[in-house]
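Q: Focus on the shape:
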Amino acid sequence: MEKTVAGNTIQVNEEGYLTDFSQWTREVGDEIAKEEGIVMTPRHWEVINYLQEQHKQETALSIRRIGKSGVVDIKEFYALFPKGPLKTSTKIAGIPKPASCI
C-alpha cells in the first residue's frame, strides 16, 4: 500500500515496513522514527547505518548479533529503541522486518 512520508510516496506492507528500500531517505527514516515516538540522535543514525550495511550484505539480523557488533551493546540498543529495538530500528532503516521478530 502507499503512504506519504516526508513528502515522499512510499510503498509499505501492512505493518508499515518499506517494501522498496530504494524509496528510503534519511527524511523518511526520521518521519518513521517520529511515528514510533523516537527523536533521532547521531547515535540512533549510527545504528541505522549499521543495520542498512548488514542488510546490503544479506546478513541475518538478530539482537544478539547487533549486541556483538561493537556498534551498540544490547542495553543501549533497548535504550535507543525501547518499543522493541530490532523491530523499530529496522522499520526506521527501511529494511524488512527480520525473521526473528514476532
Observations:
- The chain has one domain: 2-93.
